[in-house]
Amino acid sequence: xxxxxxxxxxxxxxxxxxxxxxxxxxxxxxxxxxxxxxxxxxxxxxxxxxxxxxxxxxxxxxxxxxxxxxxxxxxxxxxxxxxxxxxxxxxxxxxxxxxxxxxxxxxxxxxxxxxxxxxxxxxxxxxxxxxxxxxxxxxxxxxxxxxxxxxxxxxxxxxxxxxxxxxxxxxxxxxxxx
Amino acid sequence: xxxxxxxxxxxxxxxxxxxxxxxxxxxxxxxxxxxxxxxxxxxxxxxxxxxxxxxxxxxxxxxxxxxxxxxxxxxxxxxxxxxxxxxxxxxxxxxxxxxxxxxxxxxxxxxxxxxxxxxxxxxxxxxxxxxxxxxxxxxxxxxxxxxxxxxxxxxxxxxxxxxxxxxxxxxxxxxxxxxxxxxx
Lengths: 178, 184
Prior knowledge:
The complex is a heterodimer of chains A (about 180) and B (about 180).
Chain A: H1 3-13, E1 14-15, H2 25-34, H3 38-52, H4 57-81, H5 86-89, E2 92-98, E3 101-109, E4 113-120, E5 132-141, E6 144-147, H6 148-151, H7 166-177
Antiparallel strand pairs in A: 2-3, 3-4, 4-5, 5-6
Chain B: H1 6-20, H2 26-46, H3 49-65, H4 76-94, H5 106-113, E1 118-119, H6 121-128, H7 133-143, H8 149-156, H9 160-183
């Protein structure tokens, strides 16, 4: 195996198909290319339209462009609307039983992050430390607080120190944040 | 080395400039251009999907918070990789005491999440095990991060010539390691 073959093999061996949850801009441009034959017709119609209106050309063009950018933003915003605002998460408390033990799941919030706590409900020793603590950083999107983790659609990662089954916990938290 | 588009580089630089002006939407452009490459690079270091996702969250948050520290005209990709590299290293150090649960193997996550992935991570792991830490970092940045030698020298703060020679030496080392394995 020469060095180029080795490089290729190393790259191909870790060829992860990573889902990127955002709309690809490349496809966006492709769509414009498909629309290319229509553009001259639209331009003629635009000129005719401007001719009938008493508005300077550049102003119309700017407003057309701004409508276009608003449309683009609205697509992204629609995606963002599916994100849970922190206000809906904070103070959430849910009890869950696992392996015969009662667990309490809480989501708390301070100014910079949301914390996810899972603790056993132990009536004899209520101050027992939680099984799991996860701080999710906060991302501000268009004046709206959202959880960045959710923004990236991977909002369920946490570390576990204890005897819980991680697979089970992922399922719980996924249901919790859904 | 992975394919890099010239247009993407320009868009990346433009997005960071926009971010500096307070346009938060630009972060999504940075995210779209770099997420896959940053993911593969971080994944090659951490070998865990959940840790990689955690690190990348922090990385994008840091890009957003510290975008004003980026000097226009310098290499945006190298700047972001430097953040990613430093975050990964400090994250690993910070979480080195954590217990990994049994059964939480890499294959489990690949099977669960990236079902279509054509991965042979044992080969990567085995081959990279022949290298020391700095060689590993240079190789992963070059092959999985898609950085040029010059950019790697910025990220790791090592002279350019040393990056080139170390990379070349690392490849020889890995080839010898594979040869040894085949003989056995």
